[in-house]
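Q: Could you fold this chain for me?
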Amino acid sequence: QSSYSVTDNSINSLVIEYNQSLSQSVAVDSLWNLVSVPLKNNDMSFSTLFPEATSSAFIFNGSSYVQIDTAKVGKGYWLKFDQSNIYNMEGTRIIDPIAVDSGWNIIGPFDEEVSVSQISSNPSGIITTNLFGYDNSYVIANTLTPGKAYWVKVDQAGQLNLTGTNKLYSANTFLSNYSGKLKFIDGVGRVAELMIIDEAPNSTLFELPPKPPAGVFDVRFTTDKIAEQLNNGSKNIVISGAVYPLTIKAEGVSVRIKDFIDGTIFNESILNGEELKLNNSALNILSLEINHLNAAPISYSLQQNYPNPFNPSTLLKYSLPEAGFVELNIFNSLGELVKTLVSQNHEAGNYQVEWNGKNQYGQKVVSGVYFYSITAGDFHSVKKMMLLK
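A: Sure. Below is the predicted structure, expressed as structure tokens.
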């Protein structure tokens, strides 16, 4: 929107050069991100583009992660930050096809948002999976956002065109068919989800990208899938990079979760809509199976009450591998008996009882720390809980 007057009458020809310089905001979260650079700049070093990054940048070379110093438009990288930030990228637009190798690749969109349905490939049909982004855990992507990066798997080397018109596939095609899911929420609020489905997940659409670098939060079945069938037996899951305590929430399904070795360290059930908290960071490989409520547990257990802290009531759950007399009592911090919740014979099974914050006389107790104790045969266990008002 400017002009220039030519006053030298000896100039009788002109060369016009045009350079479209654009800017694009790139948002990053605290901890690990999958990032890309949407515009071509004269200086593509990560130290210039992301000066507050607290790690080196890593690219995937087809089998492992490799440290790299300079970014390329169309490629994606792992990068870590201490806090969320917004970077303003400046440069010129690149709209060339993105070269991909056979197997998993990390790609980055250009300076405009792209729907997955717009992506085409050469050769046609080489994409075999959903596209995955990373938002504190792997998530299936329907849209590619500038500055973010995404995993994609192809069955042969080729090119991806992000401005194509051929419909690739409908992402999330299986999500309407799952029977339940488990949410894994770590100590800093990061969330990962695994799906429980009714049929064996033969489709590669269920396949997750390679495990992230060490220290990055990730939860997956040991088959490297995001969904598995549990009706035909147990499946194992592996947890990486989590900050404990780790909360597991069941939605639409009831399951039993055990430690990977033999279930003697950890063996708990979680019903639909309930939560279970893991405090032991050594429990990073777990065995998962459908919870058959009538099946006897293989060991005694007293679970942590939920919710905790609580107001006005909380649930106490316990498991008995054999029939016997059970006593469950509430004590205050001085060791004085507050209320007996259970004092009777039980068959083997899983049980729960509610405490409403009242003593044995029906009076509300004061806020503070309380203890609950179970005795069943030779088994005795005590746990702490907190009532807040």
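A (continued): Residues 46-49 form the longest helix (4 residues).
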